[in-house]
Each structure stands twice: as C-alpha cells, then as structure tokens.
C-alpha cells in the first residue's frame, strides 16, 4: 500500500514538474514574442516618423502658378492636332498624345544628402508625318529643389535604318544653356524662343516628317514647338495659330 502510494505520488510529482516547466517555458516564449512585437511596432513608428520628416509636405516641391509661364499647356488636350505650314503651303502635323504630372522622389533613407519629392511633367507628342518607328517627340519638365525648372526635350532622328534622338537640356526661367530670341508668327509674339540646332554633319537631320532635312527647331518655353527650318531646301515651317 505504502509502495503504491509512494509510486503514485512520485509520478504525480514528476508530471507536475513537467507541466510547470512547460507553463514557464510557454510564458517565457510569450514574453519574448510580445517584446519582439512591441519592438517591431516601435521601430515601424520611428521609421514612419522619419519618412514623414524626410518626404513630408514641407519637402515636396510642386509646380507653382508662376511656373506655368514656362510650361507648354497647349499639349494638355489629348489627340489635338497642331499644324505647321511652310511658304509652299505644305503642312506637317503634330499630335498631342500624353500629358501627365507625376510625383517623383529624390534620394532616400539610405542615401546621403537631401531627400525630397518634386513634380515632374511628362509630355509625349506624335509626329504624324514621320516614319512609324520614329514619331515620338518627348518633353519632360521637373521642379528642382532650388525652385527653378529643369527641361529635357528629345527630338527624333531617323538614320535610314534606325531611330535615334537628340536631347536638349536647359533650365528656366534663367536659361543660360541657349540664347533666347523673339519671334512673331501671324501677329502673335513669342518672347522665350530657344533655337535648337542639329549638330554634326550636314546629313544629321531631325525627323519631323519622312525624308525631312530639318536642322533647326524653334521651341518656346510656354508654347512648345512653334516652327522648324529645312536649311537645305530653304523651307520654313511655322505653327498655324
């Protein structure tokens, strides 16, 4: 009787110890899990706070109303056709394809220096009369952290076998990369015209239409492309307005 009791008591005691150890270990694991979870939440909160400080509204450089003096809103209406005509009444068409402003970012948490958001305008135009694989005339305009605008104009060139392009880059309103000229077309005065010229040999033409021999593009900061010249055949194309 005593031996059975002692054996039962010993078995009960061992089971109780195992259960206690399991409960303690489980409790420790739960505490560790909770501690890890809380540390994760704290880290996430700190990260979001840093992200807000770095990329907050105070560091978002948006286009201002004054900036639109140097942004060609004439390309805003999708599928609108803009025509150019020369002295022989020959016309070339340019079609508005895409006009969109996106919020871009510069820098980041792991990069050195300043980080911020800025507005960027993407404009895509289609040269209706050019070769089908060389029809895109692209414009991008970005707001800089200094408050001015950075422009990038890409004009296509067809080499006979492939399509390339010439990129023109400049800033506004203080444009130092190219000289500004005034032009009058059909009694309308354009005051901020940049002359973008093809460089290289005489056969380095802009592809404004099939078999074109265009060497010179007239680009107004507010109205975009307003004309171009075929210096080989002495043809002057100007916008119809």
Structure, explained:
With 241 residues, this protein is α+β, with helices and mostly antiparallel strands. Helix content is 22%, strand content 40%. The protein has one helix at residues 2-54, and strands at 60-61, 81-85, 91-106, 116-127, 136-143, 149-158, 163-172, 180-185, 188-197, 216-220, 224-230, 235-239. Strands 1, 2, 3, 4, 5, 6, 7, 8, 9, 10, 11 and 12 form a twelve-stranded mixed β-sheet that branches. The chain starts with a helix and ends with a strand. Residues 1-9 and 44-57 have low confidence and may be disordered.
Distinctive features:
disordered N terminus, about 240 residues, globular, alpha+beta, 12 strands, 1 helix
List the helices and strands and how they pair.
Elements: H1 2-54, E1 60-61, E2 81-85, E3 91-106, E4 116-127, E5 136-143, E6 149-158, E7 163-172, E8 180-185, E9 188-197, E10 216-220, E11 224-230, E12 235-239
Radius of gyration: 34 Å
Q: Say how many strands there are.
A: 12
Order of helices and strands: HEEEEEEEEEEEE
Count of alpha and pi helical runs? 1
| Sequence stretches where pLDDT stays below 50 over 5 or more residues | 1-9, 44-57
Indicate the mean pLDDT. 81
**Which word captures the global form?**
globular
Proportion of beta-strand residues: 35-45%
Q: Share of helix among residues?
A: 10-25%
Task: Label the structural class.
Answer: alpha+beta
**Largest sheet at a glance?**
12 strands, mixed
Distance between the termini: 117 Å
Brief overview:
It contains one helix and twelve strands; from the N terminus they run αββββββββββββ.
């Amino acid at each position: 009787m005593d031996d059975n009791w002692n054996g039962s008591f010993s078995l009960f005691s061992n089971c109780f110890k195992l259960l206690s150890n399991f409960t303690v270990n489980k409790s420790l694991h739960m505490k560790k899990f909770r501690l890890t979870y809380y540390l994760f939440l704290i880290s996430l909160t700190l990260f979001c706070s840093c992200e807000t400080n770095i990329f907050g509204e105070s560091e978002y450089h948006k286009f201002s109303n004054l900036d639109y003096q140097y942004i060609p809103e004439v390309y805003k209406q999708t599928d609108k056709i803009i025509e150019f005509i020369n002295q022989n009444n020959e016309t070339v068409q340019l079609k508005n394809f895409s006009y969109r402003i996106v919020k871009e970012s510069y820098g980041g948490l792991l990069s050195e220096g300043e980080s911020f958001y800025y507005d960027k305008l993407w404009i895509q135009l289609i040269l209706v009369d050019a070769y089908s694989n060389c029809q895109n005339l692209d414009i991008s305009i970005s707001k800089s952290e200094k408050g001015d605008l950075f422009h990038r104009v890409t004009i296509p060139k067809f080499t006979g076998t492939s399509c390339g392009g010439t990129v023109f880059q400049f800033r506004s309103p203080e444009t130092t990369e190219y000289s500004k000229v005034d032009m009058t077309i059909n009694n309308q005065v354009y005051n901020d015209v940049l002359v973008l010229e093809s460089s290289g040999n005489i056969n380095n033409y802009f592809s404004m239409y099939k078999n074109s021999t265009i060497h010179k593009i007239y680009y107004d900061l507010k109205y975009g492309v307003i004309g171009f010249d075929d210096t080989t055949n002495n043809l002057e194309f100007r916008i119809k307005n």
